[in-house]
Write a structure and sequence with these properties.
This protein is an all-alpha fold. It has a domain of 71 residues: lambda repressor-like DNA-binding domains (434 Repressor (Amino-terminal Domain)). It contains six helices and no strands. Helix 2 crosses helix 4 and helix 3 packs across helix 4. The longest helix is centred in the first third of the chain and has 20 residues. It is elongated, with a radius of gyration of 24 Å. The protein starts with 5 loop residues before the first helix and ends in an 11-residue tail after the last helix.
């Protein structure tokens, strides 16, 4: 028998809460479109258990199932991730590299001769 990864045994609370909410939203989307679990499973080429697990927000359900469900319901284009924190950190690295590079030129004094 395979052992579960620590993430599956004890997921972070925020992650678990988010996945449960996502699962509920996916179920609502399915019911509003009058699809059965079997209909959706057939459309994305998976089993009904995978759909049921996704709707429960199980962390062990593959990301592909979640994205395929969003695709079936026409919601995939609403997913947008912008890594503002990563962009901010990268900009600091770029500035510090530029500063470090110019420090080695000349005596470190500003030369106004253009």
């Amino acid at each position: 028998m395979r052992t579960k990864t620590p993430l599956f045994k004890n997921p972070p609370y925020d992650l678990e809460k988010y996945l449960v909410a996502l699962g509920q939203d996916l179920r609502t989307a399915r019911v509003r479109r009058n699809f059965t679990i079997a209909d959706v499973a057939e459309k994305i080429g998976t089993g009904v258990r995978a759909i049921a697990d996704a709707e429960k927000g199980k962390i062990s359900t593959g990301a592909g199932v979640y994205f395929a469900l969003l695709w079936v319901y026409g919601l995939l284009d609403q997913i947008s991730f912008r890594d503002e924190e990563g962009e901010r950190l990268a900009s600091f690295r770029e500035k510090s590299k530029a500063y470090a590079h110019t420090r080695g030129i000349g005596s470190g004094k500003i030369d106004h001769d253009f």
